[in-house]
Amino acid sequence: MVKGTAIGPGTARVPRKMREIGMASAQLTLTDGSGSAGGHARPRDLSFELQQMTARQIWFLLRRHIKLVAGIVITCVLIVLAIQLQLPKRYQATATVQVQLNDSSGSNQADAVRNQQRVANEARMYRSQALAEQVVRDLKLHRNPAFNNGVTMKVPLAASHLLNDTQVASSTDSDVIDITVQSGDPELAARIANRFVQSLQKLRSERRQVWRDEVTRALANEAGRLSSEAWRAEQAVADFRRDHAMPVGAGSAEDYQQMNRLAVEAASSAALSSGMRAQAAGVSSAAGMRTVAGATSPALDNLQRQYDDLSRQRSEMAVQMGANHPQMQALTAQISQVSNAMTQERASVIAAQQARNNADAGRERAMAMAEANAAAARAGQLQARLNDITSAAFRNNANSVDLSILERKAEVARQAYLTTAQRAQTVRAELESTGVNSTMMSAAPVPLTPVAPAPKKMALAAFVGSSMLALLIVLGIEMFDNRLRSGDQLRRLFGLRTLAMLPGLPDPIGPSIEENPVVTEPQSLFTEVARNLASEVEALPRLEGSQRVLVTSPLPGDGKSSVALTLAAAAASMGRRAIVVDLDLRRPGPSVLRSIQDNSNLPDLIDVLTHSGETRKLIPQVESHVEHDPAYGAAPAALLPVVLSTREQIRNPAALVQGWQVARLLDELREQFDLVVINAPAILAVRDARTLSSLADSTIMVVRWGSTTVEQLRASLQMVNNQVAGAVFNQVDYEEHARRGYGDAVQFYMGSAAYYSDSFPVRQKWTKAASDRVRRVFTREAA
């Protein structure tokens, strides 16, 4: 037989290659999303869990706390019904009011946003304490027994009582307001609802008249005071101008503008005088430059025509006659006479033209000189005026600052008076206008049917509200419940796989191996789960040869000794040689392993550690394969596990656990047994489990169902650096676990009752189960 291979009745030999694949899959199972074996404890995100919940999961969540939920719902509904049945009848009357949106002109010219604000303000007025007091005074409600239940109230207290019984509702897109009043008297409810509009108009009229008088009086006083201040300021300006000889505009920008105009005109006149004098000087020069070449006269023109005619005749006759011809000579003589006459006439014409030119030049020179003298005289007058104004302006410079201050004061006073006077007129006009008012659109009729109490409606509301409250309470309980109950919690929070969920036993395990449920009840649910645990442990990674498994728990009392014994018994029933080495030496009281040690003939653990190398002599050899007796049903003694513990408490257990003898003993036991189960102390109590984990192939954490908390397991995993192969739930209440509906295989264990020899509870319908619970409760109370 090859060591490390589990062979039992009805099982086949597993090839080495298949075991390696099983080890790899087990390692993958122990690896969380970060890739580290065992996983790290992740914080619980309840909001994410709630978002991922389905309707069925919520139903199972409520079913876990069905008693609490039913108690909350029934209590709330009964309380509401009791209160409703004791309440007096209440009647409700509703009056509809329309808001008249008018401005100072008597029409509505505002936009939609402004109108909505006006309607909201009007509704706020109907909810005000002042209007409620006015209604109380108008209807004398503080003295009405139907309103105050026969107790005389003060007006403010009655108004507060009225506001509690009144509801004012308005919509954003309408100008209608609904006023709803509740009262024990139907006629009084209708009267109160219809009185609100008249009381508001009366209250608004009184307050508007008082306000109008106060505002008008204040504005009139202020306008009179500002008028006096403006008159005094303007009188101060006038007195200052009179005292300093400063007419309006003196010392201001107008003086400088006038000075600039005079300077420009003086400069223009001086330039004109110089130009005219230059023109007069140039006329004389221009007179000699005038030409007389074009001068002529009628006589000169006649002589020129004669000369031209004679010259043409001589040219015509010169072709026919010679130069010595008498006619030619006569014509030549005439031409000479005419030429001399022309020369004399031309000289007289040029002389006459020259005389006329000289006369014109003299006249022009005289006119230019006259204009130059006039321009020079005007320039002198303007310069003198400019000098006078400049002197006056410089004299007023010292007074300009004071005059400006007085003028600013006068202007401020005048503007303040005008603004106040205009404001007084505007306010007076606004106060006289109608503004925003309300009119009765539909009067409230006298109600005939009471609106309260409403037991059915309130009971339904109480049922819905209490159900929501119960759901919130259940969620709160689940949020703060840190006890571990399902393998999904281990996988989600710690990345830890669940090897088995051992059901709780009604009686403790007996003080001998033969009384173990795995031996006495081989077909029970407990035995089947134990065998599954042994199979899961066999598939865990290990070294060549036998397998050493360390069993520990966060705190004492979690049942790790029972789990270790059960694991060894299940492995032995499957044909493996198993031994339990009890190294929980710090526990002072008795335990199941010590009890078995007391009832056995095996040597004490201390004796085995003391006699080094004699383990085979002290511990009997166990066969690895023994057939079961089908007729007997139980496993023979040869297949029972070996328990090695102490009969008495050790004085110094820490030195013994950390010594070399324990490692030697475990090495020797590896040669004799296929499975060595090490029962270590609680990991949060002492350090022994962390020390012993290095001697084992795998570490198994025992978690007590419904008792071990998340913090305890997280701290335990941190103590061993998360080197845990898996966890075993102990003392699992299968019926309660199935009722809670965690969605794992335990939820359906009752469907497999035919396979086990246990007596399972019979399934009942929920109605019959509820009636049985109620009957048990009343029976218990009667007893």
TrEMBL record:
It holds the Pfam family Wzz. The chain crosses the membrane at residues 66-87. The keyword Cell membrane applies. Keywords: ATP-binding, Cell membrane, Membrane, Nucleotide-binding, Transmembrane, Transmembrane helix. InterPro entries: Bact_polysacc_biosynth/exp (IPR050445), LPS_length_determ_N (IPR003856), P-loop_NTPase (IPR027417), Wzc-like_C (IPR005702). It is a multi-pass membrane protein. One of its GO terms (cellular component) is plasma membrane. Residues 56-139 form the Polysaccharide chain length determinant N-terminal domain. It is found in: Cell membrane. It comes from the Bacteria. This is Succinoglycan biosynthesis protein ExoP.
